[in-house]
Amino acid sequence: MDAINGTSAKTAKLTIGETSWDLPVLSGTIGPDVVDIGKLYGQTGMFTYDPGFTSTASCESQITYIDGDEGILLYRGYPIEQLAESGDFLETCYLLLYGELPTAAQKADFDYRVTRHTMVHEQMSRFFHGFRRDAHPMAVLVASVGAMSAFYHDSTDISDPQQRMIASIRMIAKMPTLAAMAYKYSIGQPFVYPKNELDYASNFLRMCFSVPCEEYKANPVLSRAIDKIFILHADHEQNASTSTVRLAGSSGANPFACIAAGIACLWGPAHGGANEAALKMLGEIGSVDRIPEYIKRAKDKNDPFRLMGFGHRVYKNYDPRAKIMQKTCHEVLGELGIKDDPLLDIAVELERIALQDEYFVERKLYPNIDFYSGITLRALGFPTSMFTVLFALARTVGWIGQWKEMIEDPGQRIGRPRQLYTGAAQRDYVPIARRK
Ligand code: CMC
């Protein structure tokens, strides 16, 4: 890309008053060109202003591409539909981390490496016992992932590529164990150790749902569904949590601390917390005949209510992940013999009505991945408080891939945005006795 050699065939002209500047225009492989404003302040004494980063490319990346108008999502160039249909999650992890699909030997080696890191330090279980039983599992996850930097000192030196790789493998491997521990702790059941003969998804389901007094056999259809859900959530270019990971990592912080920062950001209802919020909303609506009332509320600017699981900053078309999620939802309910799920009926009808409503059509608001994931995860046996935890588990590889890409970029610098200051101008300190 032109950004690397600093040459650009195209330029954009910026004129302020009588003076004009030529700004380089850079092109990627696909997607919109960008205007390089890196030298703007030095040349003009001005910043750009873009709260919410709606028009800002914060970095150069080769990992994930989204065409929001067409509803396209590619991991390293491969369409999400093909990966979800034909691949598995660990293969997707390899692809995101290394840039290519693995050969059979590479896949076997990667699976082996991840599998050999699934156990967490035994002392971590004592760390868990410090939490209240009713703590939200996301609170426990943020803390326990951050705490990994206190348990795995031999993989916190970010200047050592070997340590970076071990930290990456450790997080992909241990995240299901930590997520399952957070769940087990909240329901007062003993932690279940990983079983390395199982595939990634089955192992996770077993750690969540088995008890020491009974044999547990993961249902392959449900394991496959969970694996697909993980693939769908694995990466999503420079979203809020990924940008958080990059910003935290830009200061040189260790990878466990950076991923903990990403988890904290993901927790919010506008981001990963939306699946939990979407299911709560469907429950609150309660019956199909109350949908118009909620549609009306969503459209009312004086009402803070929004249709959760609807709308997206980038997708102005059907979220491609939502389509696969909807299909997976039907597969899971079918396998479990759930013929009638009132929440699914409400979701389907809500989607139908919203997609015909002028308000939603005009604003290009479509269901996003979170609209159907909550119903699916609930059917699989997860409580709502675990939904965002599963999102974090799956997104960990994306965060790590993006963090590694940034650290390995020789031009990497600390991220340091500026601001439009609107506070008081300089003034003199007033002693307290003279203040009114
Ligand atoms: N319900 C009702 N109106 C909405 C909704 C919604 N869910 N989403 C956006 N709008 C309206 C919004 O009021 C605004 O209308 P107007 O132009 O008249 O003021 C317009 O659509 C544009 O919205 P925005 O807030 O400027 O869009 P944004 O890009 O800042 O926000 C969003 C994107 C995802 C935060 C937002 O659509 C939302 O809050 N959705 C519900 C939460 C949700 O489902 N989040 C999951 C996102 S996908 C998973 C992930 O990436 O984490």
Report on the architecture of this protein:
By secondary structure, this protein is mainly alpha-helical. It is 50% helix and 6% strand. The protein has helices at residues 2-5, 40-44, 80-86, 89-98, 104-115, 124-128, 137-151, 161-186, 200-209, 220-233, 240-250, 255-266, 274-285, 291-299, 320-335, 342-356, 358-362, 370-379, 387-407; strands at residues 10-16, 19-26, 34-35, 64-67, 72-75, 78-79. It has a 3-stranded antiparallel sheet with strand order 1-2-3. Strands 4-5-6 form a 3-stranded antiparallel sheet. A hairpin with a 7-residue loop joins β2 and β3 (34-35). It is globular and about 80 Å long. The chain starts with a helix and ends in a 29-residue tail after the last helix. Carboxymethyl coenzyme *A is lined by residues 239, 270-272, 274, 298, 306-313, 363, 365, 368-370. Residues 239, 270-272, 274, 298, 306-313, 363, 365, 368-370 line the site of carboxymethyl coenzyme *A (CMC).
